[in-house]
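Q: Could you predict the 3D structure of Probable serine incorporator isoform X1?
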Amino acid sequence: METSSGGSSDEGRRIFKVDTWCSQFRNGSNPWMARYIYALMFLIANLLAWAVRDYGRGALTEMERLKGCHGARDCLGAEGVLRVSLGCFIFYFTMFLSTTGTSKMRERRSTWHSGWWSAKIILWIAFTIIPFVLPATVIRLYGDVAHFGAGVFLLIQLVSVISFITWLNDCCQSDKAADRCQIHIMLLATMAYVICLVGIISMYIWYVPQPTCLLNIFFITWTLVLLQLMTSVSLHPKVNAGILTPGLMGLYIVFICWCAIRSEPGGGKCIRNAETSTKTDWLTIISFIVAVLAMVIATFSTGIDSKCFQFRKDDNQDEEDDVPYGYGFFHLVFATGAMYFAMLLIGWNTHHPIRKWTIDVGWTSTWVRIVNEWLAVCVYLWMLVAPVIWKNRQMVVGAV
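A: Sure. Here are the predicted structure tokens for Probable serine incorporator isoform X1:
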């Protein structure tokens, strides 16, 4: 009996390797390819929300359900984005409920995750249409909830980034790779710090054209202070976390600071060439496309990183029949990502005027980014200091 089972399992794995991607798509046997299809559907939802916001106001005005806006242009665009976002959220949250807890490839829920694409595409289209017949009160309620959901997405992404940086540092400092990677660590850390300093200097040049730009001066200077603080704590003898992790974290917080300042509304005196920032040119269009793709890639990469959220380590080795990543977590990240892209497209404010071909613009967006930067530093410092605190506490308890 065991021999027969083992033979069928080997045969299944051999078919999995030999079958073409097209046949795997039909039979639902490739969870690795499935994640790209989900990401493509997420990208289409992003583009649909943008099209509704920038070019769908005429159609939205004719809809009876949107009369709560009283014809307000910005309100209609924001509600259109929220309706598309709600449909995307419902789809991925349904997938989350139907796949969470899946552990083996042979389970029916695994087949549902990786296959049945005709049914899921019909379901996705239906969920996209349904929010457009809901009353405006429901959409406004979803908009309030989406603020929280987008914050959850940022937190998940933050933990994923810090986990990756820590994992990379642990790999480089392991006994097997310590001697071989020492030079690479120094080069990578030096490069990271150089890029951080160049980025900070560039932000001073471009976003502080005059001494009256006190807010931008505070954002940039405080980022430099946080970089120094992370480095000092990491190099403390009791922590001894090395120089690579604070350098990579420095890149992350400098990037967030840059995104925050870039989110400030155009036309101000604290941005060079501010008069051209209100015009839609090819650079604005390229920046928008890059931002949308970056958002989809960030959601995609975070969705397959479920192991960094396991609070209990599993010492058992992975079996060949185990799922390659957490299906439920993957869809949950995309569900919160649907709320996040809605907030980016409306500037975290349903009545904030958004210019065409822009994303994540407004003072609310700026402060969300800044708070995210400060939170990232707090989480990183806690990850460094917590083991030392717990060790000292255990020593005190043991001595008593």
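Q: Anything worth pointing out?
A: The chain has one domain: 28-307+322-394.
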